[in-house]
Amino acid sequence: MKLYNLKNHTEQVNFETAIKLGLGEKQGLFFPVKLPTIKPQELSKMLKMDFITRSTEILSKFISHEISKEKLYEYVKKAFSFQYPLKVDIKKDISCFELFHGPTLAFKDFGARFMAQMIQSFKKNNELFTILTATSGDTGAAVAHAFYGMKNVRVIILYPKGKISDLQEKLFCTLGGNIKTISINGSFDDCQKLVKEAFDDKKLKESIGLNSANSINISRLLAQICYYFEAFSLISKKQQKKLVISVPCGNFGNLTAGLLAKSLGLPIKSFIACTNSNDTVPRFLKSGKWKPKKTISTISNAMDISQPNNWTRIEELFHRKSWNLKELRFGSVSDDTTIETLQELFKLGYESEPHAAIAYRLLKDQLKPGEFGLFLGTAHPAKFKNTVEKILKNNILLPKSLKNRINSPLLSHNINPNFSKLKKFLIEE
Ligand SMILES: *Cc1c(COP(=O)(O)O)cnc(C)c1O
What we know:
The chain has 19 helices and 14 strands. By secondary structure, it is of the alpha/beta class. It has a domain at 84-102 and 218-396: Rossmann fold. Strands 4-5-13-10-11-12 form a 6-stranded mixed β-sheet, with helices on both faces. The structure holds pyridoxal-5'-phosphate (PLP). The site of pyridoxal-5'-phosphate has 16 residues, from helix 12. It is an enzyme of class 4 (lyase). Its EC number is 4.2.3.1. Catalyzes the gamma-elimination of phosphate from L-phosphohomoserine and the beta-addition of water to produce L-threonine. One of its GO terms (biological process) is threonine biosynthetic process.
């Protein structure tokens, strides 16, 4: 698969390079030159396949020139070796599609684990990789578990000390082995700045084989296309005809993947782009003006992003497919309404968490008669135990993966936000 840089269309790379680089020149995102499509007849056959076989078919549409289907099947099987997504019915015309049954209890497991398999596949025998990434919570855990135990791959994760939940910290700072975690005495922005400084140090970058694993990596998006097909395969023919999918958005990777699924030929009628009070995109879709504001902290913290990176990919896709942005439904939900909605869902017998609750709320408000709605469950409620327990006044049971880690000691190092300190660590540890 050839990809071009959205900031400079003459820079073209193959899939392997796009994964290894992450971003192109001038921090431009990569986008496929060819958008493959699936004919209706082939689609109905694919919908009958099991998750791994079908996902291999989907991914091979993009990357079969670089990885054979047989090999790809093995990688996909390893990447998605956990409980598949589940559909949970909430009301007659609304269900939740739960994507949080992976090892780190958020949908990010799909993308991070597939990316890890791809890095493994493209790695030369003795090539050393250092994956350096900053996290505000869920990405760090997914990346750490995805690369855990991989030979010649070292993962270093920076996170702001005291600014992620205790459970989130336990999930990825207790692994040890090839996973090193460093708490930074500073903010998430300080962590991101350190990562950037490391990437700007060309000599360091080459000597330790520096690579990032952040959410703009094209391999992560491709992996996420697969579960939209799974969702479609789990609903009735009647529901398939009028399907609306509601997506809780932060960096807009998940929605990009859904739209790519549609561009392949999966006939999803409509998407709802949902945000919290960080509503740059909803305001843009209303007024046509791109005016990001300062990021606000909310109870749906994984969506606290006011300059979503993947938005340019969505605009490019609409342009390439000659779709009209007016057809994209959207909305934003305040913390107060999120709390109210969590309580409403609880009364319906469903224990949710703030991110999914936002998607449910906008779906319920915007669903038209005759339509069927799915909202994406992006994280397990236990990941936001304190917040959810306070709102629902109900105990949340911890799933096994969290329970197993809760008594393990934290293995994190701690440094001040100072690049020479980080550099010393990268060279010596
Ligand atoms: C990352 C994340 C999101 C936002 O997903 P994007 O792909 O960045 O839009 C939503 N909910 C949860 C729980 C997340 O971890």
